[in-house]
Structures
1.
Amino acid sequence: MPVVTVYYDRIFSMLKGEISKDELIDKIPYLGLDIEEQTEEYIKIEYNPNRPDYSTDYGIARSLNSFLDFETQYSKYDVYESDLVINIDKSTRDVRPYIVAAVIKDIKLEDETIRQIITMQEDLHNGIGRKRKKVAIGIHNLDVIESPLEYITVDDSFSFIPLNKDSDMTIKEILDSEIGNQYASILAGKNLYPIIRDANKQVLSFPPIINGDLTRLDSKTTNLFIDVTGTDLDSVCNALSVIFTTLNDAGGKVHTVEINSDNSKIKTPQIKEEVMEVELEYVRSLLGLELSEKEIITYLRRCRISANIENNKVIVKTEPFRFDLIHPVDVIEEIVLGYGIHNLKPTLPGSDMTGGFDKNQQFLDKARDVLTGLGLIEIMTIGLISEDMLKKSEMSTDNLLKVVDTKSIEHKVLKNSNVPSILKTFSKNIHKKYPQRIFEISRVFNKIDNEIQEHYQLTVGLAHATVNFTEASSYLNAFGKQLLDIDLSTKASENEIFVKGRAAEIIDEGGIKIGAIGEIKPQVLENFALRTPISLFDIDLDQLMKKRI
Amino acid sequence: MNTNNLHLLERKLLQVMSGRNEAELEDLVSDSGLTLDQIRRSVEWLKEKNLIEVKMNEIKLITLGREGESAKQKGLPEKRLVDKLKTGEDIELSELPKKIDLNQDELSAALGYARSEKWIKIFKKDNRVMIRKEGNSAVSRVEEVLNKISGPTELSNFVSEEQEILRSLVKRPDYISYEIVKKTRIKITKDGLEIARNIKDDNYIDVLTPKMLESGEWRNNTLRPLNVESPAPTIYSGKKHPVRIFIDEVREIFVSLGFQEVEGSIVQSSFWNFDALFTPQDHPAREIQDTFYIANEKSSLNVDKQILKNVEGVHKNGADTGSKGWGYQWNIEQARRMVMRTHTTCVSVRNLADNKPDEARVFSVGRVFRNEKVTFKNLVEFHQIEGIVVGKDVTLRDLMGLLTKFYKKLGFDKIKFWPSFFPYTEPSLQSMVYHEGLGKWIELGGMGIFRPEVTKPLGVDNPVLAWGSGLERLVMLRYGIDDVRKLYENDLDWLRGVPLCP
């Protein structure tokens, strides 16, 4: 989750009312923000990625001012016109089709302001920008460029001086460099690359990879040009909305840019005032609160949403950065935030219902009762195992189901048997008191008829100096008898993990094979560094569940 | 003293001692049938009761070294020297090595000892060093002493003259070595003897046998009281895994609140794990860094066609749910990718889709997977608790009320709520409970009302309250564990030792 650092001196200068540090700390969570860290100078606040307007202290202050009733009237965002023009070449349509832009004038860029803006840019890149794939943002010094700009495509031999470099690099060199490498996949498969340059053919940006060195910002910069490119029109517009409203709050004057393509001419940023309707009844019934119309309007105002009520409907208008509101329920949440979650009293649903356990789970409960009654200890292990564990168990590694790109090499294969985890458990406990008698009930995964199938497998493992097939057989019989009053028989059979001649299939009363039993062969014991014999059986419990009455 | 106060071991030892008066512990093993360890324990107890006296003896043991052993086998070097010489015959010193199997060191030592025993005479003749055998060299006292040493042998076995010889042998390198050993010697006291006599006479029996019961012989005897305060060997009960025990407790609570348990597959299609939960297909949570996708597996998506169409529509433009949707072209191929479920919410929504209830309370406790590095606080697999409530009139406040009750039953009396965000619920809340043991608030589960974009496409029109929480955190608090890996390490000492009521 993204984090914004908020310095007390800055936030207090932005707040339009009096509040102590402690009160501030208390209130912040009720906006839906988490306090991650607190020091004497600052607080670090974690926010949800659906609210990128919280990516700077300006956004946090804006919300607090209304939430704390410091501000009851919101100023409109004044947008002026600039004479900057961008001409779009249609070749960009197949590469990175959308571009919007804004000009910000007369902004004072203190160090911390620059840091806040960069954080916002990064959070937009990572959040709605999907790591620059969907949206990439360039922030430039306006004073060094000349209108009209052009948004064109070039081939990979095209060169310019990228940000923080001294000399020209070709597109190809940039994409092969460390910085280019991180985002090169976004342009993979293209043989044309997007470039923004000015009337003098000077390069501002190679989106979404890197800006030109030409337009680098410093603390003396006061006029900005912002470009937002991407693959989704709504997303680039939304990102621009967050940026221009934030820079407006940071003291800048927002100006439009004219964007020309073959068939259209628009000016951005556009202030879209979204209107949404919510049924009064829906609000009241979902929250369980009999709120008056006036209350609803007040609570929404605390969340900077202006509302009026007509025909039992709440009609709301939202600020341009509130693109997270996509359904009336989102407005209802704003109402309850304005009401204050801490003021909400819990109630209980009126209806009464009879609960119950799942039949399969209930069967497993009984199986565990029998097994623990027989003195066995239950183990629980992770369902993803390593291929190595199967190899050590001398089990087949053909047709395994595996996960992609695991971060833990120990967890790669969906386990198809509990046997490896039982053996591993014994192996970890060689210095613990014997006899050791354990069991595991877990889902195992197999591919049958081209479908991944899961079933519950029981594996019982017995380890001590004189353990043998007969002992395992006794436990098996007891299990069948005590659980279902059935006779489970054994039929001689060979098995890769068991000693030859001391292995059998487990057959149920209907003659169906439901498991295997035997003495683990010495090679497998050695593979697991075990010095005590082990007898073991496993049963497909799904087969037995079917017998339950 | 009453013999009944004596432990079985004490009685046995006293009886053996009464016939011996004095003995070393090691010597009692075969007579008493006790182990050395049992003997030591009962000696301690009997000493306390003044029934025996204990003396610690230091004894000197002599052991032959390599050279000593060789001398014992082949004879002393000086003896071997003179045996090769004929009486009255002079022999030049330089000729000796050819005649006798002794190396130079042994030879010079042998000459020295033979001369001091007066077995030979060494003299010069024509500038040559000559040797002549003289006198009687019958039996050497030294060899007799060597022959008496067999393994570690007590010094006290030797008379003083022999001890003198032993002392001289110490000077010969690697002949003999001394070792001092402490031995416990016990002696029965007068009281001890008396009690031992009583033991013989009483009618107590130690073991009740089936034979005695059959024959009625038990009537003539009394079962001897035992030391019922002494520790007994450890045994263990069979037991469910502590996580399982906790899961069962949670299940009981859900059922007591009127919830029906459901279960579902661990391997799910992306459709149920993500798409049906209104998670856009380019959402970061769906990336392979976070989610375990199953290699080369695609779901046939055997799902009601209407639901597929509804989900596609809701992603695209909200369809008829009142939502704007995410505004992108939904791709069914993405929905076919198979995953290890990342939450149990997919089980809940499948249940909603199958039953389309107007009213229901459903819960599940199940395993979920995340592609994480394993650390003391993260596992690739953990359990999730989830409950949902469907009803025409259910409210956000009802959700808070149910959760308050749920945590109260788990032992948390204080709970607080604040706003949160989850992609598939709105409004969304987070809860914290106060842990009395730790004396602090801990973050537990998230909750909310399923977005209509989730429920309407499944054919469920009433609001659905939902809450979920990880389970392991609660288990760790219960058992006082701070490393989550410990839960699934299956250390038998822990599994055997952990109490059912911690």
2.
Amino acid sequence: MFLHLLTHLRNDSMAICRVYFHMHGILLLIVFFVSLLGGCAGFRQLEMPPLPENAPPSHELAAVPFFPQEAYQCGPAALAMALSSSGLPVIPGDLVDEVYTPSRKGSLQMAMIGATRRHGRLAYEITDLDSIFPEIAAGHPVVILQNLGLSWYPVWHYAVAVGYDATMGNVILRSGVTPRKLMPFGVFEKTWARSNYWGLLVLQPTQLPATAKEKTYLAAVLGLEKARQFQASISGYTTAITRWPQSFPARMGLGNSYYAIGDLKSSERAFRETIRLHPNAGSAYNNLAQVLLEQGRYHEALGAARKAVSLGGPLEARYEETLREIKSHIIR
Amino acid sequence: MHPFRRSAKFVSILLIVFLSLIYIPVQSVFAAMIGTKAVLVDEEMQYAREKVRAFLDREDVWTALTAQGIDPLEAKARLDSLSDAEIQQISDRIDQLPAGGGVLEAVAIIAIVLFLVLLILDMIGVTDVFTFINPPPKR
């Protein structure tokens, strides 16, 4: 029962970040416990992960602006720094309504991602320790979620990692009310590990993360498409195609995004290009058929839809629906 | 009574016309496109299925399966009837295999094989396995 309560508390507080918590006596208690732990278990000094070959031993993105946070509002502050750094002039006050949940006294990770997308920026999630320094070296500040407390007494906090110094073993953060906080790597690693190394890159959709993985990147662009930021998703998919020219979902997404803004010509071109590279993709033929249908080119549409049905696959029922639809237009 | 009936008929015809006007264009515009998300999920599933299939082709896995009394060919045949979620689970486990061979890898392979065996047994009908469980007494 007690354990149950604890896990509940932990899941619940994923959302919360409290920075002015050190006024509470409880934190003193924790500090006491930590010092005890330090006494018996001993903290091993963690090494920094290897830097990419061409990365300098220390690097700092001094141009990232700083916004001091107000009580409990490290989420809006951290996101405002990242958005401004990506070329959008926003201040934390603009983001409070989008990000901050008053009842939880914090900001949910999903809200941070959603707000990023609503501003037409690509939200690329990081979930491992190895990506952060290559990203900083490539000029991308990283919004990170830390638990400054303990796993069973969490004190969640968003900060922006803007630099590192491998020789001194420090990570440089914009954190809370401190514009340039130097955190020893060991502490940084521990506090960040408690959020499973959750980090967020806020990028223009024409930018690629230094450590970009195809699936993660496409999921991020899909997020823009879902948020109906179609111009942004068009640039995102186009960027993905320059990096992964063979990517099937990227080309489908490009066609779908053009379709969503009503640019049927560009959409048609995207689906035809998809078919050229992936001649057995039923869904590309299906979408091409729909785009042709809406241009009134019924007979070309019929050909494409028939091809989709003949290729089959798990979505065959949908292709048949398209075919029926086209036939009904021809009979009419 | 009569005037009410007449107006009711009029209103219902009007409703039919308007409701179908609302419904038809929406259906014809959106029903047919395959969304990017469906494409991404589909691609991921195909990739996972290929990975599991390739895993079953490995010699050490083949040996481990045979040792568990499962015909590897039969196991492969049953892969197609596994749900997407189950395939994803197996594929995740394969991803977690320690690389480079050795004892650790062999142990991990057997763990995955056992998981596979359980899944396949499940499909054959687990009820036959637990024959020692007595059915509840009849009233």
3.
Amino acid sequence: MLWLALHFPCFGLEVAERRAGLQPETAPRILVRDNRVIHCNPGAKDIGVRVGSTLATAQSLASEGATLEQLREDPSQISARLQLMASLLYRFSSEVSLDPPDAVVLEVGRSLGLFGDFSSLEQAVMTLCDQLGHQVVPRTSSTPSGALLLARSGSRQLAKVPLQALPVSEKQYERMANMGLRTFSQLQRLPVRELGQRFGQELVDYLGRVDGRLPDPREALVPAAEFNESLHLLDPIRGKQALYEPMQHLLEELCCWLTSCGLGAALLKWRFLSHHQTLAAHMPVPLSKPQQHLRAFFDVSKLHLERTALPEDVLGVGLEAAGLEVWQSESLTLFQGNLNDDHAQQHASEAELAELLDQLGARLGMQACMRLQSLDTHIPEKAWAAERKPRRKRPYTNKPYTNKPHTKRSHARHIDPRQAQRQAQAAPLRRPLWLFSPPRPIDVTQLRLLEGPERVQTGWWSQAVSRDYYVAEHTSGARCWAFREASSQWYLHGYFG
Amino acid sequence: MQKPTSQDPLHHPDIWRAGQIQKAQATQPSSFACLDAHLPGGGWPLGSLCELLLPRAGIGELQLLAPALAALSARQRWIIWIDPPFVPYAPALESLGIDTAKILLVRIRHGRDQGEQRTQKKAAQDALWALEKASRSGTCSAALAWLDERYLRPRDTQRLQVAAGQGRTLTCLFRPEQALESASMAALRLRLEHLPDERPQATNAHRLNVHIAKRRGGWAVPNLKVTLNPPAPRPDPQAVQAQLELWRSERQQTAAGLPLWQHSETAEAPLERVH
């Protein structure tokens, strides 16, 4: 068992900054709880503010120089964020547990096979935390409590951990200091029974868990079943362009969550809040295929945003993922992105194909995009159909789609094989590439008939159609498909364009 | 170094002829031998804007492209049609070997957007945007478009040309013949013309006269005669003509009979039903 503990030293401040939509800056900034400074950024440290000093002290230090920004701690936000971080880290290990308020511990011993070695896994974890905008101190140990102790203290060896880092009360720490105990190794060397008599069973149990002598069961995290996040902005946003940044933030988190759960989302539900957290606008973004990558979501969302009416001031952005489906990842070619590669030039992935469909639909309206389909009927205008909804069951197959009714199939069994052979040998039916819908009346004197007639007739039970079709040449030179109805009126039904 | 001779200055090693440059670009053979011989690279350019200039729709422009489209539809990419003037007829496309599952039809000018009717200018802009997006994305093997001529500027064709190159898309723009006079950045411009049949009584060949008005690495080539369907003997021309004569005479009778009934507006309907 190898446990990796991640301690986020500035977690409270980072969460408060994120919630306010601020960027980490060098200007002095502090996080306040009960009129005490509990976190301060490097800028604040430079002017002399320390963790634990009172708000009055901090303000008096700041009055000499730059302004001091104060942020209030929100415990519910911090725990929600930690929960999200843990669910994002779920991709590295199946055993992730929280250690509130600002640490996460995961068992990585069994994940090493997947990531190769520990350094590449650690690198991946660090990159993820960096992307999410959190500083992190990673430490490993054979026990979760040991790893957490190392990460919180920041030291590399358990023996050298200072005793302040131990979860003991102020009074107990003072007693240890009075006994001349400074480091963890000194504490470990003391006999257990006497230690228990002086400091209580709790400390002995804790030392046992750090050593691995006592079991240390941890509650493993079950990843969240849904994604519903929101960002609150300090300053109201007026332009749509300015909304791109918070939207991208949310989408990055969504993509992390989707990858860690192995899901794809087919519907994004954006909501924009105005003053007093009232819902100002809804913006559903449907996708023709579940997607997982940022680019697919962001481009389509931007196009939808252009068409959405927003209130003047937007104070919050929310995102909910719906239409979740198990993500079917596609195998990539070995030389993906190599333009000289023939396969990459000739084929696009299904996700990319769906992306184009979504982008066109987002700007032009979903009604504008259609797919063609030919139907098995001999009435010319009914032999094709435009499909507006994307095909979900059999998308992008190479075979042409034919919708054969069952009755037809049962009928086909009774066809005389000789007759079928004769039909197959006959020339294929001449059909025009351009079809007029509806057919246009025409004067027959403008036509020169070339081939025909081909009679198309329907049964008495359906809409009566009785036509003789001819291939003809119009006086202008166009090759046409014309028919004569029983009423001797001529119509143009298409061009052999 | 080889000394240039007065007989053959073009064989000087420092001289490159434009035709030698074209080898690099990917093409899709059009499967019409006389056309392939003159198209740069031996076929339709994949990754260039190509303009087809027509006197009128339906003279055979799709049949000219069809063999190339059939080959391109075997690829896992879209063939996008933007604002075609009529309905592309799926059974006919399939009979030419084009996989209709790859066809994406986008109707902007004719379609309505959730009750809101687009202005013509907005529709033209949208169509241009859609064509550029599709060409650039790299997910379309071919993009065919019929744009509104009133709003198409020369610099738009340059954008389309660049987009086609980025997405390696055969981008075809169908334009009226008059557009030949306006400037265009398209790499290839073809003017199509109907060619009357030489032996109209014997065969029913469907032929086109293709003029290459502009191409890369070469001069314009006029008068390429392309036969779209293989010439087949006409099925019993006498019978068809006889039938036609019959309809014509009927029609004339109807026309001759009309004045008698002209005072009544509904006169034509019962008269037509008799025949």
